[in-house]
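Known limitations

Files may contain more than one protein. Parsers should not assume a single record per file. Below, a two-record file is shown to illustrate correct handling: read the sequence, read the token line, then continue until end of file.
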Amino acid sequence: MKTSPLTLEEFAGSVLAVPPLARHADLSINAAANQQLIRHIEAGGITTLLYGGNANMYHLPLHEYAPLLEMLAAAAGAQTRVIPAIGPDFGKMIEQAQILKGKGYRTAMVLPMQGFTTPEGVADGIERFVQVAGMPVTLYIKSEQYIDLERLQRLAESQHILCVKYAVVRADTGQDPYLKEMIERISSARIVSGMGERPVLSHIGDWGLTSFTTGSGCLAPRACMDLLRALKAGDRARAQGLYDAFMPLETLRDNVSLIRVLHDAVSWSGLADMGAQLPLLSATPAAMRVPVEAAARSLLAFEATR
């Protein structure tokens, strides 16, 4: 695992893969299967791994956190940056801060807490985490109400927030006053599009966000990196062709479950066995196996042509 200081330029150089987390039938972490998936992602040129929602970190037992950090550090290559998630509640965040300290990680992503928060409280929690862990956070924003932009700017300027994973859903991604003001306050260099491939033609091609997160790119990392490069080069025709290849699986994820479908798509593609899903989530409905497996295998086949 890469442990050198993390700069904003590094975010711009790679898509951020957001892999599922492989487990055995007894729910223990499957180190071998996780490493198998990591090697596939690395072979496609992605150099940043973000273990968050797709890894179901929301329900991770606290006693698994230190072993997980050790496993990921050992499994990732020397040039691969790993970003673990924390939270979403403050109690979990502050205990994870103690565990993270001194482990070689350079940022951790705050999972979004739905409800029971205030913007002032979120800012306070971030400051307390940074004080204990000794590292800035990557903030996952899914709602305008989570934190106001004045506080966000202050936290970025004080180096409490390194980067934002932006995932506020819009009917028209080209019309987003909140994102516009966010860019004006903290710059696009600090903002990663955080909703997979679907919004990237706009988020990267028009808004100029620095990169994007990907779940489906765990299956097709080389194609995903090609998409990022095409968008940054302004080659919209090439980007569109790459984008279209991701949409069948992304649409199934949107319609059924982003986390559950990706977890099982990796298994059903034959790439690596992700095993059981950690409660309080469950497996993809059995009736969806045929379309999910077909979309996953089609994306893998497309990856093989890159």
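...continuing to the second record:
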Amino acid sequence: MRLGVLILPELRWAEAGARWRRAEELGLDHAWTYDHIAWRTLRDGPWFGAVPTLTAAALATTRLRLGTLVATPNFRHPVPFARDLLALEDVSGGRFTLGVGAGGSGWDAAVLGQDPWSARERADRFAEFVELTDLLLREPVTTYRGRYYVADAAPMAPGCLQRPRLPFAVAAAGRRGMRLAAMYGQAWVTTGPRRVGEPLLDAEAGAAAVRAEVERLDEACAAVGRLPATLDRIVLAGPQLEPGVSSPEAFRDTLGRYAEVGATDLVLHWPRPSGPYAGDEAAFERAVAR
């Protein structure tokens, strides 16, 4: 089981840089950040852009894989975004993974002044977003005409270091999203079942819920002719699932339960002093250190 951490982009780099370096020192396999304009209850606090944050993290580390969990169509257009991703991947030396998702209806969904999208439109936009981003990162020049996105001879030289393009980790819970993960993803991402306002699921209940999702993912793979074993399965703890870092023993149990249901990776949030994802940083480090 590979292990990763999600570090919110809320600290000035003079402080944040040490956190990314510490993630590598702890022996973690990958580190991620959110790609939002603003996020939930932290909307009025400090918040930095994901691409420059990850670029700085790439320069501060040598081994960690880095990525977004997740970028969405809410305020991104595939053409300029793909250009930014090429540069980020190049600076990282080929250590970048693009985590993508359909997005929600929070602050990011209206920050550009658009009317709220229906669930159907959000899913349709996400499908086009993934399809076009895939083409842009594979091809030297891309022309595309979709309902929502257009590219007119968009150049993408010199292309990705990773071939045929940098990997996608596709967050999905529904049928259409899982099909996109099976078609385009090198990994699938889940946060567990959506249970807003309810207590986090412990490792036993969380693993049972993820098992049911993995079964649906396997069906999506079969539908597009893909071997399920070729798709990594990333579980992001914190939003709905208890991270289980109260002790190294508890954490080993958590890892074992998710591994048993087919997860290949577990990602935890770096503990904050208060508010969302509050926790004991020392206990976190003791649990995850390799």
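Parsers that stop after the first record will miss the second one. For reference, the second record is described as follows. The chain has eight helices and ten strands.
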